[in-house]
Amino acid sequence: xxxxxxxxxxxxxxxEFNRLLEPLGWIVIPQGELGVSExxxxxxxxxxxxxxxxxxxxxxxxxxxxxxxxxICVHALGxxxxxxxxxxxxxxxSDAGNNQKLIAELAGQPDxxxxxxxxxxxxxxxxxxxxxxxxxxxxxxxVDEPRGDGGFGYDPHFWLPAFGKTVAEISTEDKSAIxxxxxxxxxxxxxxxxxxx
Length: 197
Ligand SMILES: O=P(O)(O)OP(=O)(O)OP(=O)(O)OC[C@H]1O[C@@H](n2cnc3c(O)ncnc32)[C@H](O)[C@@H]1O
Ligand SMILES: [Mg+2]
Prior knowledge:
Blueprint: E1 2-6, H1 11-21, E2 26-30, H2 46-61, E3 65-74, H3 95-105, E4 113-123, E5 132-142, E6 158-160, E7 165-166, H4 172-178, H5 180-194
The structure holds inosine 5'-triphosphate (ITT) and magnesium ion.
């Protein structure tokens, strides 16, 4: 049984993590329920930001902490929005604003390739010298017209050619099976098992 604090304030992520980890016997407590403030995410890489978020939550709670830093990288935009995905259109964070800006920046652009990336970091305590790290990628294409109301963030504009649907149109089970976050969680769980944890 693993009791961990989930170092995220994103309701969409919290739902996905609960669905994936609770069947494995994990007790996942979102940091908001424990009064943890939002961590700074000042770094230029996903992995560094995930480590900062995990450490921050572990320090504040004394519990093991799991963080996810993720985003969408668009080929024609040189990998943008990348680590700035949550705040692409500025403050306050807004999925609608971010999607609008993404579509505007891609106007007239025939190359629609993009991928989602998630870096996960699990620390057993704030000074853990060996954080467990896993990541995952999910490739697709950006479509101008939003479709579907599942998922969160950029999902209504993220087209999956293999499904003929956007991520917001597929089931939660299918999203878990193919998403960057689903893949990263399965890799993390495998590492934990390998380490006998
Ligand atoms: O930092 P926390 O508190 O976890 O919440 P956040 O939303 O700020 O999370 P990030 O800093 O990791 O930024 C990730 C952004 O990337 C986008 N994103 C990540 N995973 C996604 C997914 O599965 N579907 C759609 N958009 C996603 C979405 O805009 C997120 O806000
Ligand atoms: Mg964030």
